[in-house]
Structures are given as C-alpha cells and as structure tokens.
Design brief:
By secondary structure, this protein is of the alpha/beta class. 49% of the residues lie in helices and 6% in strands. Among the domains are: 31-161, P-loop containing nucleotide triphosphate hydrolases (Rossmann fold, 3-Layer(aba) Sandwich); 167-229. A 5-stranded parallel β-sheet has the order 2-3-4-1-5, with helices on both faces. β2, α5 (88-103) and β3 form a beta-alpha-beta unit. α15 (259-271) runs antiparallel to α18 and α17 (297-312) packs antiparallel against α18. Mean pLDDT is 82; it is low at 1-10, 231-239 and 429-433.
Amino acid sequence: MSLFEATPGFDADRPLAERLRPRTLEEYAGQEHILGPGKPLRRQIEKDQITSMILWGPPGVGKTTLARLLAQHTRADFVPFSAVMSGIKEVKEVLASAERNRRMGRRTVLFIDEIHRFNKAQQDAFLPYVEKGDVTLIGATTENPSFEVNSALLSRTRVYSLRALTTDEQVPLLRRGAELLNVRAGGDLLEQIAIATNGDARSAYNLLELAAAAAVDGEIPPDAVADVLQRKVLLYDKSVEEHYNLISALHKSVRSSDADAALYWLGRMLESGEDRMYIARRLVRMAVEDIGLADPRALEQAMAAQQCAHFLGIPEGDQALAQITLYLAVAPKSDAAYRALKAVQEAVRSRTAEPVPMHLRNAPTRAMKQWGYGDGYQHAHQFEGALPPDMECLPESLAGTEFYQPSGRGVELRIGERLTEIRKRRKKPDSAE
C-alpha cells in the first residue's frame, strides 16, 4: 500500500489520527504562516510550481499530511519514500527514472520522509539531480536541517518551519474526534488533552482514544486524561519554541546571578529529557560569554562538567550539570572579552584589510630580509618588563585602538590594572610635548 493512498474517513479499524487526516487544504489545521492566503507555499501549491523544500517541525504537526496534499495538487509524478523503510539503492533507482522522465518532458517530485535518517554522504546522491532539475525534492524532518541536512543540498532547498499546533487549533480537531468516537467531552477536558500533548495532533488523537475507552454513558469523565497520562507532561519538545524558551531562561538566569532560578530551569530541561550534551555546550558558552576573564576558571569548570556528564551518563552526570550551573550563576560576570571580539569583527568588516606591517612579518629568506621584512621589530624580552616601548602591532589606521575594556569585576579587576599599566607604557609621547 502506498504511503499516499487515500484514507477512508469511516474505517473504524484505523487509528483516529489516520481517520481524521486532512484530505484538502481547507481541512488542514495550523501553519497559517506558510499556508495562509497569499503565503509563499500556498501560492506554489495553487500554481503547481512546487520547488525543492524541507518541511521541518516537531512530530504530529502535519508534515506528512502536507506532503499528501502536495501530491494531490501537482501534475508531476509524485514518489514517496521513507528513510526508515527505504535505502539509498531504491532512491538512486527513482533518481535515474526521474532523469529519463525529464528528457521526455515529465516532472518528478520525490518526497523523503525523515530525511535526517539518511546520513550526509547518502544525501549527496540527491544533489546532482536536484541541481539539474531532474527532481523536485521534498524532505520532512523533526531535526534541525542546519545540522542534519547536507549543506550543499540545504542551499538548494527552501526550509519551511512547521510549528506545534496551538491549543486553540487543537481543540476543534479533538471535538471532531470526539464526535467520530461518539463520545461527549467537555471543553476543559479537550483543552487539557491539547496542553498535555504539546501541539502534537497525533498524540492528542491517541490520548483522546484512550480516554474515550473510559467513557461512562457516552461521556468521558474529567479525570480520564490524568489517569491515562499517570503523570504531568511537561510542555517541552527539543525541536520547537519551548526548547529555546527554556535554554534562554537558563542562560539569562545564570547571567543575572540568580542561582535558584538557574537551577530550576536546568531541572525543567533535565526532567523533559533534553540532550545532556546540548545543555553542557550551552553552559560552556555561558562560561566564555558571560563570565569570561572575570573568573578564568569558569571555562575549566564548565569543560570538566561536560566531561563528567558524558562519562557518568544519566542520572549521575546530571549532578555535574547542576554543580556547574550553580558555579556559573554565582561567579563574577563580564562580557568584556565577548564585546571586544565583536568590536574587532566590526572593524575587520568595515575597514580595508590592510597588509601586515613589515616589522611584524617573518623573513625566512635572504630576499625577504632585503625587502624589509622584519625591519624595526622589537623583541619583547629585550626590554624591561617584556614591553617594547614604541612598537605598534595594529595596522596604521587602527593604531592605538583599545578593543578590550575589562569590567573591573573578579579576576578581571587585576587584569584591568595590568592592562592599564601596559597601555600606559606603550603609548607614544605626545608630539606636542
């Protein structure tokens, strides 16, 4: 049976999610940001001008359903594949067939469900056919395409980000589901199901079916959802907005030196099943971005915590993440190094790339010495305090620029004092004196 074979709505043996799968764009719920009137993807569908694209979003938001609707609206040959069920050999056969079809004036749309299951080397097989226009590729993935899709392939596709359905979008769907199941359910109960399933319509339908089994006289009791779940489901999914909301809350709590809040948001992420190495990477980032040289040991501690969490695993390694979270939260804060690099990058982008001054260049050959390479270089160790008194190391147009301004907190207080001394000794005497 084809993945895209029409599903009769009255087939009671099928899961509720399958029976209620939208069969027209008008029945499709959510994703107004790409499918609303006048939106880019909607126009492509209506004009049958489908281009290669990646549909990225969490489970249960309609990626495969949208692919089915694309299949109905295009006059091209529509070939569906699942990266779980099919191998690259089958895909290459389809690609070769698509190349022949193009020569005969026929178009082929190739849909790859869970395209991230193909590794980047396997994805290379699609590239020449997409470039030549032999196929229009549509990939669906729950993972961030920036990390999971070959960069060359990604540059030749349009990424459409599908969002988790809102509670208001899910409740009408669930109401239709209750009618199909011939049960009654209060609006509060349907809203509870929508909240518990975090915008995943498939999970919401499944939960409704389970709750409907507990119906008494055709009515689902108020506590049915809690009984089915057996625990509170945290609003979280690593591929949608709440993932970024929680890591943002953790980062900003650390930056604000609120240890208790930082630990709370960390706990929320841990309990929700977040990838521990993702958390560790973000904590390392906080150490260099928000603490920096105010406490140089913060980076050492963050890297040690990452190694510990990786070595011990779950749950023992979680304690290392908690420990470094607290350390970073109470550490003195400075983004001076971060701002210094930004200032340097801005200077590099906005100015002409001047050549390296001659006195800073090595002169490994006799000819280069004759050309003046290395002339005027002052070896630091030949001077008091290892400080050349009047050698400028920046290009002429930037001479004297001070990119780094220490914060005066923690260790950076001493760094600032030392830097002031260095800069004072290096400044050339005022020409007017």
